[in-house]
Design brief:
Strand order of the largest sheet: 2-1-5-4-3
CATH architecture of the largest domain: Up-down Bundle
Shape: rod-shaped
Order of helices and strands: HHHHHHHHHEEHEEEHHHHEHEEHHEE
CATH topology of the largest domain: Rhopdopsin 7-helix transmembrane proteins
Strand content: 5-15%
Length: about 575
Amino acid sequence: MTPTSLAAPLLQGIVTAGLALLLTHLYRRHGKSHFRWWAIALAMRVLSVLAILIFLLTEWMGFLYLHQVFLGWTACGLVYAAQVFAWQSVWDRRYWLVAAFPVIWSVVAIFILDNFALAAGVAVLFLALATLWAGVVFLRYRRHTRSPAAGFLAIAMFFWALHHLDYPLLRARGAWDPWGYHLDLLFTLTMGAGVLLLVIEEQREGLRTLTALSGDLRATPRRGADDDLGEALLARPLGLRGVRGALLIQVRGEVLSLTRAVGDAQSWTTDTIPAQVRVLAREVAQSGRARLEGYAATPADTPPFVAVLPLLTTGEGTMVLVIVGDIAAPFAALDDGILRVVGEQVGHALERDALTRRLAQRTSDLERLSIRMLQEHESQRQRIGRELHDETAQVFSALKLQLGLLREQGGVAFHAPIDRLVSWVDRGNMSIRQVTDGLRPAVLDDLGLVPALRALLVDLREWSGLEVEADLTAWPTPSRGLLTSEGEVALFRALQEALSNVVRHAGATTVYVTLAVQDGMAVLTIVDNGAGVDAAVLAKLASTPGRSGLFGMRERVASVGGRLTLTLAHPGLRVRIDIPVIIT
């Protein structure tokens, strides 16, 4: 045996050993069983090459026998690795029969049969069928996932199966050495390249999933009240290949409760979750490690694949994310450490989202309570004002009438005291009118919004000395029905409070008021030429209770669906009130 004839199998053994070491590293790095089985299959191939090398050197038939056994086990390992990768297959007792065939037939072929064609033909047929089986597995995976790498591997396996069939022909023509070894090495490298492409593809799919989840987590603070983070997180896996459904399960010891579900799992309830899924969810909640399981022979209600990702653990138990589908989930290539961190992030995001929703609900409840209080307050003001106007004022009017009769019937000596009493009655009546106007301006009910605002501006000009400019001409005439009664009161009170703030705080000499309808909103603006405020202070004015009455103004305007806006006018301050109109 010359060194030249040993070079081809030696090269094949070295390259195959290097590929096996690479897959062993991937298995240790990721802990995924398909890497282990690919590494074992290639290790069997290295042992078969080593056995044939020793046989070529020693011509001892025992090493030829080992070569045939290891070669058969290589084909078995490749098939099982493909099964584990694509379908998460679990070792079945029937596989022992397949693994036993190379052991038994190699005894028959090498030590019993004298017919080379029969001995080699059955062996290569077994190798070809096993390799073809692996190709079919990858082809089925390609149909489910549209994976280019799986399609590449399926084609490589089909051609490798054909190459096994040419072994007797090459051997008979004496062309096996070195071309047979070179072809085997080429197909081994092709398979290794395909496996690495699958790994890269799987990693990219998993990272795409995590990126999508991360995008949902970053968007959490910007979500509206109607957005559901849990639904968004569950919707992401549905876009991945082979995934049919997803659900969130709360695990409290042995008790499970389904929080929400999408896809095929949407029809499940807490009581109808498949038994295998329940067991896996409990195990993940207890261990805190992500799990991916395949169920080859299961009841009809159990999905072929289940991936469970642990989320946040609180005093109420552990939340887990369950993904079900037809193939191994796209999380399969990711480290447990990465999955654990992602699970914690998702869990914290769900908890933060729940807290945000509870806070929003409390805020909404407080806003409704505040609006109700304002409405009750206004209703009480209106009732008190009406009672003062209808009853107390009427009493004063009757008293004045009686005093007039007494003055006419009495002597001159009673005129001065009675006139003094009448003046006091007039003063009391005026005070009551001022109080009733403050509680509920009668002019607002009698004449409408614009006359009431004009009367308010006239009063301001008289008692404050401010120069008042008003442009209310853009308000439609007639305007009855344009705003609700509450909307009219809100505008009136807003102008009243804004003018009061100008007099008390602005140090202004002129105030300019406009009223118009713009884009379905009644827009009231009040601009003064006063000292204005600092921008930082301006940001707090309308959000802090008790600050210049603006907080109450904002609450009152908000109670009718409007908004209050404060801006610097240079000089002075601009107050704008927008309230929706009923008709345009």
